[in-house]
Amino acid sequence: MKQKISILLLVALTAVFLSSFSHQIKNFQDPKKVTQDTINKNAAIADSLGLISNLKLKLHKKNAHASYYHDKFNGRRTASGKKFDNSKYTAAHRKFPFGTKLKVTNESSGKSVIVEVTDRGPFTKGREIDLTRKAFMEIAANKASGAQKVTIEVIE
How far apart are CA 10 and CA 51, in angstroms? Predict the structure, then answer.
C-alpha cells in the first residue's frame, strides 16, 4: 500500500514539474524579437532621459508625412529581400540604403522610435516614409489616425 502511494505521489510531482516546464517553453520568445523590442524600449527610455542626443544624428527632413503599412503585407518579401513583419521596427523609404537606421519623431507628441530601412516606398505622392504598424503606434498621438507629421533623422 505504501508503495502505491509513493508511486502515485511521484507521478503527481512529475506531472506538476512537466506542466510547469511546458508552460515555460510555450512562453519562450524568439531572441531576435526580444532583442529588437528591448533595443527600442531602451531607446525610448534613453530618449526620454536625453541620452539619445549622444548619437550622431543628421537631420533629413522636418514636417515629413509618415504613414504605416497595412497588415496585408505581413509575410511578403520587402525590396531588400527580408520578410515583412508589422510587429517589428522597420520602414520603407525611397532613397535611403537598406539597413540605414533612422530616428523618427512625432512632431506633435515628441515621441520617437528608431527604425531600419528594409523596403522601398511609399509610392503615394506627398508621403515621405512608411513605418510598420508597431513603430507608428508607438509614436502616434492619435491612434485612430493613419498619418502624422514627423521629423526624420539619420543615425550615423
Answer: 54
Domain range enclosing 138:
31-155
Residue 103 lies in a domain: yes
In the DSSP assignment, the letter for residue 125 is: T
CATH number of the domain within which 51 lies: 2.40.40.10
3-state DSSP assignment of residue 136: helix
Is residue 29 within 8 A of residue 35, CB to CB? The reply is: no
Q: Which cell is 150 given?
A: 514627423
- The pTM of the full predicted model, rounded to 2 decimals, is 0.65
Give me 74's grid cell.
505581413
- Cell 515621405: give the residue: 128
Q: Kindly report, residue by residue over 90-118, the tens digit of the pLDDT.
A: 999 999 999 999 999 999 889 999 999 99
Q: How far apart are the first and last CA of the chain?
A: 74
**Closest listed residue to residue 76, CA positions, set 66, 67, 68, 86:** 86
| Cα-only R_g, the chain | 22
**Which residues, 6 or more positions from 108, have their beta carbon under 8 angstroms from its beta carbon?**
141, 148, 149
